[in-house]
Amino acid sequence: MKRMRLVITHYILTKWGRRWKNRTELERWQEKRIRRQVDKVRLHSKFYREQWAGIPSAEWRSFPIIEKSRMMENFDELNTAGITKEQAFAEAYEAENSRDFKPTLQGVTVGLSSGTSGNRGIFLVGEEEQAAWTGTVLAKLLPGGLWKRARIAFFLRANSNLYESVKQGRLQFRYFDLLEPLPQLLARMKEYRPDIWIAPPSMLRLLAEAQHSGSLNLTPRRMIAVAEVLDPLDRQHIEQTFGQKVHQAYQCTEGFLGSTCSHGTLHLNEDIVHIDKEVLDGESRRFVPVVTDFSRTVQPIIRYRLNDILTEAAEPCPCGSLYTAIERIEGRCDDILYLPHVSDGHLVTVFPDFITRAVLAASAEIEHYRAIQHSPQELEISYRTRPGSNEDTERQIADELTRLFNRLSCTPPLLTFSAYSFVPGRLKLRRVERGWKL
């Protein structure tokens, strides 16, 4: 009963209770919350207490920035629940292997990040934090309100008590394991007939293709893309198939960082987190987010640098929200490509979106693609065109990429082409990927 009251409280606060007249008021409110959070974390986390020694809470912006590797190295002393990394990984791996994601450690939900870069992480969420997350997520993403009946289908590699917690009152929730064969997933979808679909874009694309072929024949009330970059090619195909917008939830190990408004614009959840922008390229508005969460205390996230590339919107969203509008989540910093400059050989930055735009500009017949840079001298393009297409697609892609490389004054790599192949499951789809390390 207490937990349900907390869910409803946070739902109401998120939906109607937090209103600021302008951006300045919002930032002042954030500042108070952050200082209060820092004082609390300093008391209960040995790692942060030592990190911040001699630095007043009012100067929290000067705290050292941490990243995933540092967090995992100091996991035992960073979290405030007394859970060791060994215990947490053992619990998480047991859940992964058994596919039973319900057990907790000392009442704390333990989850395992996907580890796209080969460095898997752990997240801990306490019971009260879970209730707060549930209320916030439902307020931001649920169409029709908390008391309207809805059937939610959630597709992901691993389930969690955190995700199961959205099952409230009239809301039904069913987990769809991405490791199950597609025919089995489609059969379960037809039996369940969900209103709200939450899935990685690669899975939503497969559902759209099944709908197009007549093997699904369902219409969702809302589609929410999670876990992968929503590529323009996939967005267009999914939206055309179902005749509605694809919404997004920017959710990761580090928290619930963003969600789309009624206009389909992704906004940072600045009522939950503060985001500093580490600028990558001011002209194109690209930045890396540095996250400070002022609500989580079991595994505090303070001055935490993500590995994501975000592009801020050039204009305010018509919805009028004070929260920062994001044009696109472009991918991971690890997937920025680098090519030698034509004159002196220094490495030129090639953002993933540059490659995406070039490939898509090459041909309207391209249905799927991946670009993998194997070395500074070699770039592989996997693609698939629509049935019956007779275009010289490889030449068109090569021409567009050559124009891009000439514009950037970098030496064109050797291009190789292959047939596109990807099945959603254990791995996330990365349309543009750097397969070598700097």
From TrEMBL:
Source domain of life: Bacteria
Protein name per Swiss-Prot or TrEMBL: Adenylate cyclase
PANTHER family (alphabetical): CAPSULAR POLYSACCHARIDE BIOSYNTHESIS PROTEIN (PTHR36932:SF1)
